[in-house]
Design a protein that fits this description.
By secondary structure, the chain is mostly helical. The protein contains 2 helices and no strands. The protein has one domain.
Length: 102
C-alpha cells in the first residue's frame, strides 16, 4: 500500500492564510477608496449642475431683458427655468449613480 500524503505543516497553512487575508484586506481598501472618491465626484457634479443651471438661466434672462427692455421679468423667469434644469440634471445624475453601467 502507498503511504497517505503528509498533511501540510501548520506553518505553511498559517502563511497561506495570512496571504489570503492580506489580499482580501487590500481589495477592501481599494473598494472603499473608490467609493468615497466617487461620492465626492458625484457631490461636485450635483453642485456644478445646480449652479450652472441657475447662472445660465439668469444670464440669458438678463441679456433678453436688456435687448427687449423688460427688466427684470425675463431674468426672473429664466432664473426659475435654469433652476428647474439644474434640478433635472441632479435627478439624472442620482439615477445614473444608482444604476451604474456594467
Amino acid at each position: 500500500m502507498s503511504e497517505p500524503e503528509k498533511p501540510t505543516s501548520l506553518e505553511d497553512l498559517n502563511r497561506r492564510l495570512k496571504d489570503v487575508r492580506s489580499k482580501h484586506a487590500q481589495d477592501e481598501l481599494e473598494k472603499d477608496g473608490a467609493g468615497s472618491s466617487g461620492g465626492l465626484g458625484l457631490g461636485f457634479r450635483v453642485a456644478i449642475d445646480l449652479v450652472a443651471g441657475v447662472a445660465v438661466g439668469v444670464f440669458v434672462g438678463w441679456l433678453l431683458d436688456r435687448w427687449l427692455g423688460t427688466t427684470p421679468w425675463l431674468m426672473v423667469l429664466f432664473f426659475f427655468l435654469g433652476a428647474g434644469a439644474g434640478f433635472t440634471n441632479v435627478l439624472r445624475a442620482e439615477r445614473a449613480s444608482r444604476n451604474p453601467p456594467e
